Amino acid sequence: MKPYIFTLLLLLLISATAGAGGKNVSYEVNGEPFEGYFISPDAEAPLILLIHDWDGLTDYEVQRAAMLAARGYAVFAVDLFGADIRPTKLEDKRQHTGELYKDRERMRALLQGAWRTAAALGANTDNAVAMGYCFGGAALLELARSGADLKGFVTFHGGLATPAGQDYSKTKGKLLILHGTADVNITMDQFTNLAMELEKHGVAHEMITYGGAPHAFTVFGSDRYREDADRKSWQRFIEFLGETLH
Question: Whole-number mean pLDDT of the chain?
Answer without folding.
Answer: 92
